[in-house]
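Open question from group meeting: does this chain pack into something compact, or does most of it stay loose? Before anyone orders reagents, we agreed to write out a predicted structure and look at it together. Recording both the input and the output here so the notebook holds the full record.
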Amino acid sequence: MINIALPKGRLGERAYALLSSAGYACGEYFPDSRKLVFCDTDSGVSYFWVKPADVAVYVERGAADVGVAGKDILLEYSPDVYELSNLETGKCSMCVAAPADWQDDMSRPLRVATKFVNVAKKYFDGLGRDIEIIKLNGSIELAPILGMADVIVDIVETGKTLKENNLKVFENIFEISARLIANKASYNFKKDQITELVKRLNGEVNA
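Structure tokens returned:
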């Protein structure tokens, strides 16, 4: 059996649809179930759904052989896993955004609101810009509106939320999409099965 960790939500549903099309459907699975683990001996897979930020943890620690995680999660937490494939779904961007009339005041540290602390630090370190990180877990857009932060570093998909809150993108840091990752030990022990899974998935992605 290959144990597969998928993120709850739309990204997980898209990933499951790809895996199902590639021959890894699970007869037990249906989207509205509150069950967390689904097994299918015919397909040789076991699926479980976890919070998106936790997928890499389950894979790194070997509870899952493979998993699907956004590139944002991989760059923020740097898990010790293999990145096997770009699934070309869940596409969005990591951006610096601020009020439309924002101008950087270089005389003081830049106040940056984000939940992607490591990504933000690395980006602004590369620019040589001193920053003050304000760690938030949700509604990041509110911070500059209330004057608590100068800019935000966050994921932007359509830009609609930014526009509705009079914010705009100033810098695109990197593009994001879903990646198939593998536990390093599992990849060695189940190399044939995982290699076949990657081959089939890539066939669906490139179809």
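Observations to bring back to the group:
The chain has eight helices and eleven strands.
Helices lie at 10-24, 55-60, 71-77, 117-127, 142-145, 160-164, 184-189, 191-205.
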